[in-house]
Amino acid sequence: MRKTKNISLDTMVTDFILLGLSHPPNLRTLLFLVFCTIYVLTQLGNLLILLTVWAEPKLHARPMYLLLGVLSFLDMWLSSVIVPRLILNFTAASKAVPFGGCVAQLYFFHFLGSTQCFLYTLMAYDRYLAICQPLRYPVLMNGRLCSILVAGAWLAGSIHGSIQAALTFRLPYCGPNQIDYFICDIPAVLRLACADTSVNELVTFVDIGVVAASCFMLILLSYANIIRAILKIRTADGRRRAFSTCGSHLTVVTVYYVPCIFIYLRAGSKSPLDGAVAVFYTVVTPLLNPLIYTLRNQDVKSALRRMTAGR
Predict the structure, then answer these.
(1) What band does 3 get if pLDDT is binned at 50, 70 and 90?
(2) Number of domains into which the chain is organized
(3) Distances in whole angstroms, Cα of residue 156 to Cα of each of 2, 117, 153, 162, 172
């Protein structure tokens, strides 16, 4: 919490300096190449999934794969909001970000990230209906309803991002302007505010931490019912296929939600571990998503083989 200061307009900062990730100078070139490679592979992998879902009639007609396509689209944009700016920190380029650019990055980061949160919950609900209500599934989750739910997730994400950006940058920033982080994110930016940040910290805890935790609990509840239904399947092959379908999504959810909750339920933390955890769910997870779904999902693998064979 900060005490309010008397601030004149000419002391307000016009840009921020992103200090990036702490690293030994001799590793700068290596880290530059590593993150460049991660970014390129993330874009190519998610684009491949997106094209596969779009090109294969059997996939884009099913809500599960429509949601997977939307997830790949989100991953491509989320990676583009974070990684290029991170890569610049390993070059001689200026680390200054205009005030408006910092606002935009924080908005899009939370817009896309929260939309992804809601999408994971929808994917769990879709799997719950498919396995626990198989006979009613075509009625309960059709293409039109799936599109409406996805649009609702985008709208909710946009509202969330707008609220967070507005609340964060309504505060005065009069210096210093160095953000000890690799992106303009709420906890790091709030440390520079020249005003009381207790309300913002409370909103961050409730709106991000509790919402993320609630979505995660809903997903776990869905999977508790799914596992119970799978165990009732009589054939071993049927159980294996059901677990395989759900395993990909559950793996992705775990590697996304656990670091996210770790960061935002500890908004006041200044631990150096926070940066590494944030890199994992903002940079590495979008790379892992297409790999996880490709390696574990038989339908996607079959569609990819047909695409590469030209059939």
Answers:
(1) very low
(2) 1
(3) 31, 10, 5, 10, 27
Give domain status of residue 2, yes or no. no
In angstroms and rounded to an integer, the radius of gyration of the C-alpha atoms of the chain is 21
| Within-domain flag for 152 | yes
What's the CA gap between 205 and 211, in Å, rounded? 9
Q: In 10 A of CB 156, how many CB atoms?
A: 16
Digit-coded pLDDT (tens) for 215-271:
888 888 988 888 888 877 777 776 776 676 677 777 777 777 777 767 666 655 566
Place of tokens 């239904």: 229
Q: Is 98 exposed, middle or buried (0-12, 13-18, 19+ CB in 10 A)?
A: exposed
Domain encompassing residue 47: 12-309
